[in-house]
## 1
Amino acid sequence: MPIKFAAIGLNHSHIYGQVNCLLREGAELVAFHSPEDDLAAQFEEKYPQAKRVSDKRAILEDQSIALVLTAAILNERAAISIEAMRHGKDVMSDKPGMTTLQQLAEVKRVQAETGRIYSVCYSEHFETRSTVKAGELVAAGAIGNVVHTVGLGPHAIRNNQRPDWFFDRPRYGGILCDIGSHQCEQFLFFSGTDTDAEVISATVNNRANPTHPGLQDVGDMHLRTPTTTGYVRVDWHTPDGLGTWGDGRLTILGTEGYIELRKYIDIAGQPGGDHLFLVDKKGTHRIDCSKGDLPYARQLIADVLNRTETAMPQVRAFKAMELALTAQKMAEVGTVWQQ
């Protein structure tokens, strides 16, 4: 029997990717809750099989629903996840899963108490075929031991399409918490540790959006483990002429070679996305990953059914957010955004 799942909070369009990856693997979407009529109408049109409920308790108290998804406003996600776990549900949250270290501590406590699965859909890894392929190559020893990563996460701001909460620092959590959490998860994954990492330095700034003083439009951080270091830059400066929402890239340096991912576009190169370049002792190689496997949702469904931990180690889901939130706090010291 397929697992049944529902959504609470549709405020970020990532909810569609979350739903689609589960539907692709045979799970059944049965219900959703959204107080916003416009967001609900769009969702209902896309997924007519899902019943809109006016009270989220209709989802939380339905014992046939195994998994709750959320892409609510960022600072509301932790409370939704906690409530779902306390009602016996597993959770798939959009990133970031929370916006403060205090929320992180509470989610960790409730997850430990309930034994539920708390998963964050870090889509720049789990729903990006080139990143999945890079993980396979690194695991196979294609570039030796990983010693450094560079993660670049540029995004298009598209001001006229953004809701008010997008520019409100307490509600979106800051740029390193938000889009930087993607990069923290990938740094842990490619460094081969789910726990032993720290933030060395971090900065945030608003360089080009003075009419939105709550917005941070660029940020960076420097990370390390006992065997690797990593640099991350995230921003809202993608120009209109790019043709996609961001030129996301990841470079993984090993002792015997390196890999570069051009995830969403290869500017002045081959069309499409999911380009992987491998340089090793034998030469340079381009690998088209556009038809590669995406195992995350399939593994998560199996974890829900079998109470296993194959889609992502629970500790990594938390550690990635810990790094992002720690970097965010560090970067804001002495700034107008300091919490």
## 2
Amino acid sequence: MSAAAAVEYFHEPVMADEIADVFRPVPGGLIVDATLGGGGHAEMLLRQHPDRTLLGIDRDPAAIAAARERLSRFGDRVTLRCDRFDRLGEHVDELDGPVVGAFFDFGVSSHQLDTASRGFSHRYDAPLDMRMDPRAELHAGFVVNEYSVDELRDLLRRHADERHAGRIAAAIVAARPLHTTRQLSDVVRAAVPAAARRGNRHPAMRTFAAIRIEVNDELNLIEPAIRAALARLSEKGRLATLAYHSGEDSIVKFILREAADGICECPSTLPCICGAAPTIRLLRRKITRPSATEAERNPRAASAMLRAAERLESTSS
């Protein structure tokens, strides 16, 4: 990646002050940024404490290239891996030192949305792609042109809570073959009722998001990744997540509350022998939203939902 291209990947980290506050008390050790992007949050976390090291993971080779340049001044404090974040455990286990922090910033990056050729956005005319990892086999063109009408309807409902999923799915199938984002956008716009076209949001936004989530299997990767991170956090280590989609946040919420409650898995008619006990404490019981100032300055931050937790001290003897 050229220097100019790397600069394009740099963006203002979402809720940077809030993330900094979460990790400020964390001592020296390894921080895992499981969704590295251009390295904005990673740079902040490394700058915060000079005795921290960082493992940065991203499946997008362009993100890794941009972050490598941005973080180069930190030298051997930084290790980068081009991979999916559900493989976090494998990469952490290769490194030494306690894991004192783990951070996840879910969803698509601004760079991916704004790079027309990646095919993520309805705003540009480009081939249907939407792969975060360009090496992956499944792409948006296959989903749009090969999935059945039932499969399309179900993924629109499941991934985007799309009210007009049936109409959109039928319209896509009737219009096949579709090869570009503009074609897909036009089909969706024509399929929804006129009233749905009058809002501030483009009527195809939910459809594009649902297909992107399907292509990249985004929701299915979250649970194993969060569980792997929690299992490797040292005592007093902290985890923070930024979600932009109710499906993402619901998964995180369930896992964190389960760990915070120490849910017993024994039959209800028998005494507990599984030793269930809380392993984390929630730093916030509810989600934290970006400030009105940040949401106005950066509209893409407006839907962000922050959750954070701290690993409890072991009670074992």
